[in-house]
Amino acid sequence: MPTITSARVIVTCPGRNFITLKIETDQGVYGVGDATLNGRELAVASYLTDHVIPCLIGRDAHRIEDIWQYLYKGAYWRRGPVTMSAIAAVDMALWDIKGKLAGLPVYQLLGGASREGCMVYGHANGSDISETIERAQEYLEFGYKAVRLQSGVPGLKATYGVSGERFYYEPAKGNLPDETCWSTSKYLRSVPELFQKGRDALGWDLHLLHDVHHRCTPIEAARLGKDLEPYRLFWLEDATPAEDQAAFRLIRQHTTTPLAVGEIFNSIWDCKQLIEEQLIDYIRATVVHAGGITHLRRIAGLADLYQVRTGCHGATDLSPVSMAAALHFGISVPNFGIQEYMRHTPETDAVFPHAYSFQDGLMHPGDKPGLGVDIDEKLAAGYEYNRAYLPVNRLEDGTMFNW
Ligand code: CS2
Ligand code: MG
After folding, report:
1. Shortest-distance ligand to the CA of residue 317
2. Residue 71: CA count within 13 A, CB half-sphere
3. Does residue 224 contact residue 236 with C-beta atoms inside 8 Å?
4. What is the CATH number of the domain that holds 78?
5. Over residues 89-98, mean pLDDT
6. Are residues 185 and 306 in the same domain?
7. 17, 38, 110, 276: which sits with the fewest CB atoms below 10 Å from its CB?
8. How close is the Cα of 99 to the center of ligand 1, in Å?
9. Residues with CB under 6 A from ligand 1
10. Ligand 2 ion: Cβ-proximal residues, 5 Å cutoff
11. Pick the catalytic residue: 123, 207, 210, 213?
């Protein structure tokens, strides 16, 4: 049996902070796992270093499920983004080790490929509608089959998803949170035109998506869903905050626009009602924040019973280690929907060499044993941690709101 002999957390910041767990065994094989939690990275680093790693040494690295249960039940304080991101990193690293020792890519251990590749979506964003559509046309030329449109809102200085950068979107900036100002009424007035012009310019074959980013009340989300019905979106994401899963009943009653939610979920309990009542069409829970491949398979299994498909989060603040693990999961799971793919910068890709690839709108994890991704520790050491926060958001009268 491969015994865990050591493990350590690598903090690096090639343009943005990433937390990577590396677990080593007595078979000379190691595994890597992503533990990045945007804006709270060091909390997970400490959870791993100070509380988890001492419990791993001497364990059988093959016992993925047992170690998962040990870390979940053994913590006593269950769930939460910090705990579940730490467990996720251990889980990813153990699947990586298992694949390497078996000489197989992880997706072969998960039941093999269920499709040729994972359809991914890119992020077109711009300060106004025409710039957003221009960006989307570039994604169309790259071969993407799906693109998210996020545009500036007339009358607002800044809004979610608009970065000014052509292909990268990194919202975490500054030594303290930026403060942005929001108006739902201005936003609701602007979105239908974005998609009406989007359809006119981009046609009907390209899947179009949009992220509300938790900023509507249920009835506002219902209205937006209805307003967007003529444009046949692939999904409307995070239409309203989902702590109250029942809130989606009201949206569902009013609109047939498909709904996606869950990038901030960290366990099956966060989405059980949403799935069982078919209040959503896509579950966005991710490999890094929802307990790793092991737990994400449970979520996907529940979702499959109710015709809910996966649509995993894949922003730049999920490292290439997560991207690799998500693709092994995505290519094998029966109810795959779509995978988000916010490209990483060349400096990030250099720190995390990987086997996954993009072609004709699909991504494939590659066939290297394990996850097919690594961390170049020498390069990583050259990028010091640099504290950065996600912005906070206030209404025009100063009331704290959802970012
Ligand atoms: C977004 C993310 O990718 C998405 O759908 O919601 O950009 C999200 O804001 C970031 O991952 C937060 O760190
Ligand atoms: Mg989102």
Report:
1. 1
2. 30
3. yes
4. 3.30.390.10
5. 99
6. yes
7. 276
8. 30
9. 38, 171, 211, 213, 263, 313, 315, 317, 340, 390
10. 211, 263
11. 213
Count of domains in the chain?
A: 2
Name residue 394's beta-bridge partners.
181, 400
Q: Residue 164 — pLDDT band, cuts 50, 70, 90? A: confident
Token duo for residue 73? 């039940």
Q: Ligand 1 center to residue 104 CA distance, Å?
A: 32
Mapped onto helix, strand or coil, the DSSP state of residue 301 is helix
Interval 363-396: pLDDT, tens: 999 999 999 999 999 999 999 999 999 999 999 9
- pLDDT tens per residue, range 254-301: 999 999 999 999 999 999 999 999 999 999 999 999 999 999 999 999
List 179's β-bridge partners, or say none.
392
Domain membership flag for residue 398? no
Residue 28: pLDDT band (50, 70, 90) is: very high
Instruction: Note the pLDDT of residue 168.
Output: 82
CATH number of the domain that 320 lies in? 3.20.20.120
What domain range includes position 231? 109-367
Structure tokens at 99: 């694949």
CA of 315 to the centre of ligand 1 (A): 6
Helix 64-74 with 292-305: angle, nearest 10 deg: 90
What atom in ligand 1 is closest to the CA of residue 211?
5
Is 344 a residue of the active site? no
- Ligand closest to CA 315: 1
pTM, entire model? 0.98
Nearest ligand 1 atom to the CA of 169 is 7
> Does the annotation mark 214 as catalytic?
no
Indicate the residue among 90, 105, 120 that finishes a domain. 105
pLDDT tens digits for range 70-86: 999 999 999 999 999 99
